[in-house]
Amino acid sequence: TGQYENIIASKPDPTITLITLNRPKALNALSSPLFHELNSALAAAEVDDEVGCIVLTGSEKAFAAGADIKEMKDIKYHEAYGKDFLGHWAQLSKIRKPIIAAVSGFALGGGCELALMCDIILASPTAKFGQPEINLGVIPGGGGSQRLAKTIGKSRTMELTLTGRTFSAQEAEKWGMVSRVVGEGEGEVVKEAVEMAKLISSRGKLAVQAGKEVVNAAFELPLGEGLRFERRLFQSLFATNDQKEGMAAFAEKRKPTFTHT
Ligand code: CO8
User: Fold this and answer.
1) How many angstroms separate the alpha carbon of residue 69 from the centre of ligand 1?
2) Deepest of 40, 98, 136, 254, by most Cβ within 10 A of its Cβ?
3) CATH says 205-251 is which class?
4) Does the interface predicted TM-score (ipTM) exceed 0.90?
5) pTM, entire model
């Protein structure tokens, strides 16, 4: 749609919002205006009843090459801390619909962190991840150190954070950071992500939402509380029509028709 300058929001299917970061000249550097538009597009997808899943992507060359260095290079401490510089990035992690990152090319610094904020990461073989902030005299600020440590372990996270070296799609897959490296070819990773999004959208929305909530709880709660939270949410789904329909359809050997109620 034409309402944005730094992103493109579209619906390749009525049940999917596809958000494409679109600052090609800056390798999709995540400026404040870009992030505000991203937050608006996410909020619009969140309230669109038709939409069951969101896909976030960049270009073939860059998912995003990080926070916008030119925008932040001169800011002072009292502005950064005082005005919670880039604090609005956290809004993405409040979205309750699943978000799939389809990553090609550079995903560096804030770009890598943006992918890590998403629920599922699909990578093209060209994807190049990294937390190069150390080269700029800073450290990750958008969750990189925490989400990477929880995902790929301490030693690797420490190495990457302290050296700033980039890592490949294959390494990211081996370490469990991306769920899959998809085939080569232009647009392949987005196509794959859209197919996955369609599948997720065809499921009962309440169950999908609950599934996202419980998996995310694993990153925040101690095991005992996480298990209790999962069980309670599982039990609560017996109050939904989709549970009745899903299980009846299985017993009657037919496909379920979910009403998302
Ligand atoms: N910010 C601003 N502009 C950028 C950025 C960026 N992060 N990355 C690339 N660009 C611009 C370049 O300045 C250049 O612009 P111009 O043509 O006007 O000179 C254009 O994009 C093309 O870039 P290059 O010519 O450098 O392209 P190359 O193919 O030679 O190199 C690289 C590609 C290797 C990706 C290189 O551009 C690079 O190293 N970029 C910077 C990567 C980086 O350091 N990222 C980390 C940024 S710090 C960060 O993300 C902190 C996040 C904190 C989040 C806090 C949340 C709360």
Assistant:
1) 7
2) 98
3) mainly alpha
4) yes
5) 0.96
